[in-house]
Design brief:
alpha/beta; Chitobiase, domain 2; 742 residues; 5 domains; TIM Barrel; 7-stranded antiparallel sheet; disordered N terminus; 7-stranded parallel sheet; 28 strands; 32% helix
Length: 742
């Protein structure tokens, strides 16, 4: 790999000795752009791109011509005779070579490498830069001269390179950095079982095509030992390949769910290979044998993450190994939660040279939460390269904007091509150019954020939220400090609307944290509501306008979804309107002492026991203001501190089947004056379970008012999950937001 010397905003070859003129003052040039006689589409596009950027920079329009025997000075693009005579043709896939020969510049490549080479040339020698999906920056040049003896060659570190951020929709961004998209390479992508054998077509008439789980056929996965399933899959792929013959890869992979088949034949295959990966690879290899000219990809994911003990992937099978279980607090090579991933990678490497990595670099549950993982990119990609991984998907937020998406996308684009580049230099280059005079404050913000994560020993979780870290790197005090840096940044560029717009996108993340935490704090400091002199609570005066401004900024920034499960900014604003209308419900138990017989789920601590008596309801995210109990009852004893007359007690439970959260099978209330002797009020039965998201109420009324000091509520979870949401590895979870005493 050629080493480059970074000077200013573009690269200069350390081999340059002297210069030669291409364009003189006034846009005068005698140079031509030459193409081979039978130029490919890539070569033709490369020539047009080069012509366009030279004209933008210098004003000179170099003619694009087909190469002839007549001597012509200029650029020779692609597989020209000039290149064939001067260059070593053994350029690796997607690689390119740029060479000066007798005052001519030869740019040739393999595959799309010629186009990649032209963009590298434009960046290094014209000084043009492409930062995001907007127009590239092109400096104006009255004169343009190049060093003599340019001779450079590059090739990508990985055959498949994807940085999955909004800029992946911009074709020039992809070409500039040599990136790819799975839409362009795969005829069928991702979790594909039910695309190949859809349950709506087959389950009613042939349930045996689907997984046998706990003695019952269920449309969770496929029965991979069933010969008819193999025939249907092969038939589907034959038809799809005929319609899309240029697709390189075809996915035959499990659904994003549990429930692998436990029939006798699948069990036999699994026993041979040490787990469900056995029947999966048996099936995938059979499919691959039917399409020897195509590459079949499959997932090593969740229950198939381990490599099989005996079976090896066929030569045209690629294993796509996921790192989904790893936290992002440290590089994968050092992160303790990534130990299983490292082990699985080593296992698969012993069995096949064809491994892709599916890695993750955003917080899927809250795309805008500050998620400082940039410093993990280089070591992670170096780990993949060292372990022989040949393709990498770095999954960001897809087509929606997320925290620092521009910087993350840029760093990944550079490092996916060459993981040995200096990541700090790349970041400094991006920040200084993208934010201009505001750059020092943006760098200070990034440093403060990373230092706070390290100092608070935060575990960065791709399924985390900004509330769990309200005492850590996202504390209100730290958010205020981050916001202060953005104030200074905006002052530095107050007359530059483009940079101000870019800074507003950074503020989005800080503002999102403030808004989400305000729900958590409720009536406390930093909450939504403030207490007036008459003792009532009202929405803070500027909060509705603040929410509206945030939503508008989201729309301006290209935030289509706030989370992976499709929460749009408009729906987010509607949820806020419901919160404002509901106001504050008084609770006699606010501030009461709460004790629990069984522990709550530590991953979602909310305010711990105090969650049940903080006068703050839960909203539509179970991980915020709901106290959760997994596989155990909720038995909560509430000490009101003094004897008080009570007219009613009510509780709210969440129904969120997607996360295996269901209302209780029964709820009981007991009261006491001394905390020892309790009187049972009644036991309320649970209600019919629903698949939709909802909140369930359970209430007890005293006729007449009853004076009590202690209240004990017991909620018993359902004994088993409903069949339509059954999982061997899950138990029913209870979620309660408050015990309302009135």
């Amino acid at each position: 790999m050629i080493r480059w010397l970074l000077i200013g905003c573009f690269f200069v070859s350390p081999r340059a000795h002297g210069q030669f003129q291409l364009v003189a003052d006034g846009g005068i040039s005698s140079c031509h752009i030459m193409l081979p006689a039978r130029a490919s589409r890539v070569e033709t596009k490369a020539a047009a791109v080069l012509q366009d950027y030279i004209m933008r920079a210098t004003g000179a329009r170099l003619p694009v011509e087909t190469e002839t025997s007549k001597e012509t000075n200029g650029f020779f693009i692609g597989d020209t005779r000039e290149a064939a005579a001067a260059l070593n043709r053994s350029i690796p896939a997607d690689g390119f070579r740029i060479r000066e020969m007798g005052k001519n510049i030869l740019i040739d490549g393999n595959g799309r490498g010629t186009l990649y080479g032209v963009y590298r040339f434009i960046e290094r020698w014209l000084g043009a830069r492409k930062w995001d999906a907007g127009p590239a920056f092109v400096p104006k040049r009255k004169n343009w001269a190049l060093p003599a003896q340019i001779d450079e060659q590059e090739q990508p570190a990985f055959a498949y390179r994807e940085s999955y951020f909004p800029y992946s929709a911009d074709q020039e961004y992809l070409d500039w950095y040599g990136l790819q998209r799975f839409e362009d390479l795969w005829g069928l992508w991702g979790h594909s079982f039910f695309k190949l054998v859809p349950p709506r077509t087959w389950f009613a008439v042939h349930p045996e095509y689907f997984s046998l789980v706990d003695g019952r056929r269920q449309p969770l996965q496929l029965c991979l030992s069933n010969p008819d399933v193999l025939k249907i899959t092969i038939t589907w792929l034959k038809d799809a390949i005929q319609k899309n013959p240029d697709a390189k890869y075809w996915s035959v992979a499990q659904n994003d769910d549990i429930g692998h088949c436990e029939c006798d034949q699948c069990r036999k295959l699994d026993a041979t290979d040490g787990g469900p990966q056995g029947s999966l690879l048996y099936f995938v290899n059979k499919v691959a044998a039917a399409f020897p000219e195509k590459t079949i990809t499959t997932l090593a994911y969740e229950y198939t993450a381990s490599a099989p003990a005996v079976t090896r992937p066929a030569a045209n099978v690629v294993i796509l190994l996921s790192s989904i279980d790893a936290l992002r607090s440290a590089p994968l090579a050092a992160e303790s939660s990534a130990a299983a991933f490292r082990h699985h990678l080593d296992q698969w490497k012993e069995r096949t040279p064809h491994i892709f990595a599916w890695d993750y670099c955003t917080q899927f549950t809250n795309y805008l939460t500050p998620f400082p993982v940039e410093q993990q990119f280089r070591p992670n990609l170096q780990l993949f390269a060292a372990r022989g991984v040949s393709g990498v998907l770095e999954q960001g937020s897809g087509d929606t904007y997320s925290d620092m998406a521009e910087l993350n996308s840029y760093l990944l684009a550079r490092l996916l091509w060459n993981p040995s580049l200096n990541a700090d230099s790349l970041e400094n280059d991006f920040v200084s150019q993208y934010y201009g005079k505001a750059a020092p404050f943006v760098q200070e913000y990034l440093h403060a954020l990373r230092s706070a994560v390290a100092g608070t020993h935060t575990s960065l979780d791709i399924y985390g939220n900004p509330v769990n870290d309200h005492n850590g790197y996202l504390s209100p005090e730290r958010i205020n400090a981050y916001s202060g840096l953005m104030d200074r940044a905006e002052t530095a560029v107050q007359h530059d609307p483009l940079v101000l717009q870019r800074l507003r996108r950074i503020r989005l993340s800080q503002e999102f944290v403030v808004l989400q935490q305000s729900r958590f704090y409720g009536t406390e400091q930093h909450g939504i509501f403030e207490r007036h002199a008459d003792g009532t609570y009202q929405v803070k005066a500027r909060w509705p306008a603040r929410v509206s401004r945030f939503v508008q900024d989201c729309k301006d920034a290209g935030v289509h979804w706030l989370a992976e499960d499709a929460i749009a900014p408009a729906a987010y604003e509607q949820e806020w309107q419901r919160i404002f209308r509901a106001g504050v419900r008084n609770n006699l138990a606010v501030g009461a002492a709460v004790s629990l017989q069984y522990p709550f789920v530590p991953e979602y601590p909310a305010k711990k026991e105090a969650t049940l008596a903080d006068q703050t309801p839960g909203y539509e995210d179970f991980s915020y203001n709901w106290l959760c109990f997994y596989g155990v009852p909720m038995v909560a004893t509430i000490d009101l501190h003094t004897v008080q007359p009570v007219s009613s007690v009510s509780l709210r439970f969440l129904e969120d089947a997607r996360h295996w959260i269901f209302g209780p099978a029964s709820v009981q209330a007991e009261v006491s004056m001394d905390g020892i002797h309790y009187t049972s009020l009644e036991i309320l039965p649970g209600k019919h379970l629903e698949e939709d998201f909802s909140v369930r109420d359970a209430g007890f009324t005293f006729h007449p008012h009853q004076s009590i000091r202690y209240l004990r509520v017991t909620a018993i979870p359902i004994s088993v999950l409903p069949s339509w949401r059954y999982s061997k590895t899950k138990k029913p979870m209870l979620a309660c937001d408050e015990v309302w005493v009135e």
